[in-house]
Design the sequence.
């Protein structure tokens, strides 16, 4: 069994052969990885799966705009400082120092949600394999230390740009939305459903939000998974439509320059892909009539 196939089976990953192969190659050269892609494409799953396959221990950080420099590197406990003064016994290592001293992988989920000052703390660690801790001194990274990070595209809410200097320290791997066939396989695996028609419709609805003119941001395969699970638990002939409304509401954004609400937008894509059987992948990305019945 090839390493890629082994990773897919052990971690339930459908497809992603090229991305997995690239991630293995980068980590095996001792370099750092930045995975980029929209929400729900499996960036975290792929990153952790590759690290696990290589037997690498990971220290995880989930980025947000309130994350502080001290939280990343470590902090001094005030009561212990009063008793013992500043030193290693009063210092609690943060995830960066933990990973560096153990020679582990620091996994940062949504790196570009962190403040720029926190991102800058990573530069010497990535470049020179050092971190300077006040009152402690310069700490050197043990062999094996690497950083694997993910980020959403900058147009997403609460995200920002990484500095050019920081991006230059990473190798870049892009994860796009997968094919319709792979998304149907993911939904079947995640839900346990054997209803091919339901799965096909749910996937088509999610994919339609990525192409239809009324949607600014479409839904990931998570919406299709939720649609199938909810529809299977509902009674009535409109179960799919009701389930899709619940699953898509929190996962899409409508365009501001087009007069539409979610209900009317959902009616349009439902009529197109479920009632008329259109393939949303055949729509033009900028087609203003995508998914709308021609007169």
Sequence:
């Amino acid at each position: 069994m090839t390493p890629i196939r082994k990773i897919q089976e052990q971690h339930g990953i459908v497809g992603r052969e090229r991305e997995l192969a690239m991630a293995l190659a980068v980590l095996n050269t001792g370099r750092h990885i930045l995975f980029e892609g929209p929400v729900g494409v499996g960036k975290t799953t792929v990153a952790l799966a590759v690290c696990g396959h290589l037997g690498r221990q990971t220290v995880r950080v989930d980025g947000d705009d309130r994350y502080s420099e001290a939280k990343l590197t470590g902090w001094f406990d005030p009561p212990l400082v009063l008793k013992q003064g500043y030193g290693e016994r009063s210092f609690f290592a943060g995830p960066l120092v933990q990973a560096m001293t153990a020679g582990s992988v620091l996994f940062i989920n949504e790196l570009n949600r962190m403040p720029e000052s926190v991102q800058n703390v990573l530069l010497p660690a990535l470049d020179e394999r050092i971190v300077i801790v006040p009152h402690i001194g310069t700490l050197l990274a043990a062999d094996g230390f690497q950083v694997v990070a993910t980020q959403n595209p900058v147009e997403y809410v609460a995200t920002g740009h990484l500095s050019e200097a920081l991006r230059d320290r990473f190798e870049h791997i892009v994860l796009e939305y997968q094919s319709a066939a792979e998304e149907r396989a993911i939904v079947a695996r995640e839900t346990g459903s054997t209803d091919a028609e339901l799965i096909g419709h749910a996937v088509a609805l999610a994919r339609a939000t990525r192409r239809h003119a009324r949607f600014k941001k479409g839904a990931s395969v998570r919406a299709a998974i939720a649609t199938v699970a909810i529809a299977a638990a509902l009674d009535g002939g409109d179960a799919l439509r009701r389930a899709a409304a619940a699953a898509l509401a929190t996962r899409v954004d409508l365009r501001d320059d087009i007069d539409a609400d979610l209900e009317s937008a959902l009616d349009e894509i439902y009529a197109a892909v479920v009632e008329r059987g259109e393939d949303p992948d055949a729509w033009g990305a900028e087609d203003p009539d995508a998914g709308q019945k021609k007169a």
User: Anything to note?
Assistant: The mean pLDDT is 87. The longest helix spans residues 262-275.
